[in-house]
């Protein structure tokens, strides 16, 4: 069933990825409204052979809209998403604005698609690192409950948007030319460097990205007692995040069983070539829908074979953001 569709934040990195994925998946729409800030008003975008004019995002933008895909930032989502929902649209929001609202479903379709039915006009898309990390953990957790997760992320510039991606490229050129790198999108040099994730630190010493991974995973898994700790880091990669994930299970778990479960899991591709020391890399995951998983091995520091280490790579702009939102929209059309 086709719908009347709107995209808020269409000119950004995730907004552009929305368009790419909608075209690839032949998402059915009758009309499409492209929305962005006043700076982009009037810009022309060609999509599926038709030229669209970008309109300014306002509270009056959603008359007659069925589904609105939002990637306009948390502040704008808080301002405009309720207006869209009031106008009758179902908002799929990519920001952190509503994720921990108990009345808003937080959805990864491979994990908790049934939560979509409980929406009251807004559905939240989880954080990119959360999605990429838990898509391969969920099928394991269903068979053998995960008691504890220790996650270290290696996050690409794409997670901070188009300006950050451009800054990584520009800084690389500046440094190779012997010039001082210009820092605008990031507080520190990203080219040839890495640093603690650039989100705000809380009083406990954890940054917002790390806290999101903990709280969001518990909500999506509907498992408030699962123990999770995370360390999130920016690395000089254009797109696709990687994560090292250590899992402690309730019962023994072998690498062979993990490979078996993940080989059958939706949204996951196993890339675990020990013979050639070949495991998932950002260049493998870039442009891919699936989360890639490798380095599957026993954690020998835990007794009774209850520990497993895995390494994952996933495209932040796709499954970590736009693809997950489009998958939610596809499920909405099925209701």
From TrEMBL:
- Domain (Semialdehyde dehydrogenase NAD-binding) spans 4-119
Name the EC number(s): 1.2.1.11
* Cross-referenced CDD domains: ASADH_C_bac_euk_like, VcASADH2_like_N
Q: Which residues bind substrate?
A: 155, 208, 234
Q: What class of enzyme is it?
A: oxidoreductase
Give the matching InterPro entries.
Asp_semialdehyde_DH (IPR012080), Asp_semialdehyde_DH_beta (IPR005986), NAD(P)-bd_dom_sf (IPR036291), Semialdehyde_DH_NAD-bd (IPR000534), Semialdhyde_DH_dimer_dom (IPR012280)
Pathway membership, UniProt: Amino-acid biosynthesis; L-methionine biosynthesis via de novo pathway; L-homoserine from L-aspartate: step 2/3; Amino-acid biosynthesis; L-threonine biosynthesis; L-threonine from L-aspartate: step 2/5; Amino-acid biosynthesis; L-lysine biosynthesis via DAP pathway; (S)-tetrahydrodipicolinate from L-aspartate: step 2/4
Sorted keywords for this record are: Amino-acid biosynthesis, Diaminopimelate biosynthesis, Lysine biosynthesis, Methionine biosynthesis, NADP, Oxidoreductase, Threonine biosynthesis
Q: Where does phosphate bind?
A: 99
Summary of the function given for this chain in its UniProt record: Catalyzes the NADPH-dependent formation of L-aspartate-semialdehyde (L-ASA) by the reductive dephosphorylation of L-aspartyl-4-phosphate.
Q: What is this protein called?
A: Aspartate-semialdehyde dehydrogenase
Taxon lineage: Bacteria, Pseudomonadati, Planctomycetota, Phycisphaerae, Sedimentisphaerales
